């Protein structure tokens, strides 16, 4: 079995066909072409429309892609997930060596084009490629955004776990202190170990909070500017994603985080909650008690606008902040800030 020299090639920009290539084989758009050694005298060639094994100048195996599978295959190429492109590419016998991730995603070799069947042999056209590339780009974009959302959810859940653990340990330390004082002792090493654990939890909390601010600020800059990255991250986590939060009406955002009280109200066992997670913002919890519901409702409407702008890539600047600050001053009944 010959050793693999790796994937080699050059970049071909969209619209430029290789010299001597058949136009029907290479529509005017950048295509994915990688060539690797399979074994002595054989090679595995990857085109955007399939995988082919050549023995010299003869095609010995054709593995074309279905039209419906093209977006998935092209997205896998861009991710470097070659097993998802075709299992043959991760077979040790193929000698496939993935291209360096830092290089351009389009690597081209043209010496096999004369013997390879073109995409039209499988009923595929340049329009199929353009459609598949566009859909692959959308899927990769959604995956990247969802990755940030999932990290935000994990960070918020971890912070909540740390808070519960710290409260539990502090209560245990308080009880231990009371017993130690009653017995005339200082608690010894066990109590010192508990104090160290609380300190370690505090350090971890600071680290996770800084990461939450960083990720949420990148994912939702408009919301972060309006209510702070920490609270923006908590709302995203409550909604299980920015895309879901952006689809929520303001009334739902207003009570997000107060689901138990809301459903208790629906069952007839309590009053309608006026606010949920948004109560953490000073514009709400510093408002006069009778005005907190209106403050939460106003802020929820601004958050809904900011979430949609973040989802679709808009930049609202400081307009929402200025409008909310003015409304908060009105609700407080003073000329000062919230």
CATH topology of the domain at 220-338: Serum Albumin, Chain A, Domain 1
**Which architecture of the domain at 220-338 does the CATH hierarchy give at level 2?**
Orthogonal Bundle
Largest sheet entry: 4 strands, antiparallel
Give the CATH superfamily of the domain at 220-338: Nop domain
* Structural class computed from helices and strand pairing: alpha+beta
Compute the separation of the termini in Å: 73 Å
Q: What is the beta-strand fraction?
A: 5-15%
Strand order, sheet with most strands: 1-2-3-4
Rg estimate, integer Å: 30 Å
Structural shape: flat
Which segments are poorly predicted (pLDDT under 50) over 5 or more consecutive residues? 1-31, 100-110
Overall residue-averaged pLDDT value: 77
In percent, how helical is the residue content?
40-55%
Number of strand segments? 4
**Can you count the helices?**
12
The ordered H/E elements are EEEEHHHHHHHHHHHH
CATH uppermost class of the domain at 220-338:
Mainly Alpha
């Amino acid at each position: 079995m010959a050793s693999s020299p790796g994937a080699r090639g050059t970049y071909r920009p969209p619209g430029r066909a290789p010299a001597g290539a058949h136009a029907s084989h290479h529509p005017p758009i950048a295509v994915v072409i990688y060539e690797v050694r399979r074994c002595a005298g054989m090679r595995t060639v990857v085109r955007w429309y399939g995988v082919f094994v050549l023995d010299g100048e003869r095609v010995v195996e054709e593995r074309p892609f279905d039209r419906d599978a093209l977006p998935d295959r092209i997205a896998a190429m861009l991710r470097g997930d070659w097993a998802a492109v075709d299992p043959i590419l991760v077979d040790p016998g193929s000698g496939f060596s993935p291209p360096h991730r830092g290089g351009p995603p389009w690597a081209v070799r043209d010496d096999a084009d004369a013997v390879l069947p073109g995409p039209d042999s499988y009923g595929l056209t340049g329009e199929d490629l353009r459609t598949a590339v566009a859909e692959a780009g959308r899927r990769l974009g959604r995956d990247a955004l969802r990755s940030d959302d999932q990290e935000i959810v994990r960070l918020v859940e971890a912070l909540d776990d740390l808070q519960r653990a710290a409260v539990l340990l502090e209560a245990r330390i308080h009880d231990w202190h009371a017993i130690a004082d009653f017995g005339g002792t200082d608690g010894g090493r066990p109590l010192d170990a508990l104090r160290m654990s609380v300190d370690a939890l505090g350090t971890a909390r600071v680290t996770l909070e800084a990461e939450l601010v960083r990720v949420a600020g990148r994912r939702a800059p408009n919301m972060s500017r309006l209510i702070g990255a920490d609270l923006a991250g908590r709302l995203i986590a409550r909604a299980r994603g920015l895309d879901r939060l952006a689809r929520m009406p303001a009334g739902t955002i207003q009570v997000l985080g107060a689901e138990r009280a809301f459903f208790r109200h629906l069952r007839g066992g309590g009053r309608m909650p006026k606010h949920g997670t948004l109560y953490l913002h000073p514009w709400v919890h510093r408002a006069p008690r009778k005005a907190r519901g209106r403050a939460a409702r106003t802020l929820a409407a601004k958050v809904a606008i900011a979430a949609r702008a973040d989802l679709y890539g808009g930049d609202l600047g400081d307009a929402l902040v200025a409008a909310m600050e003015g409304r908060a001053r009105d609700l407080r009944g003073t000329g000062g800030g919230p």
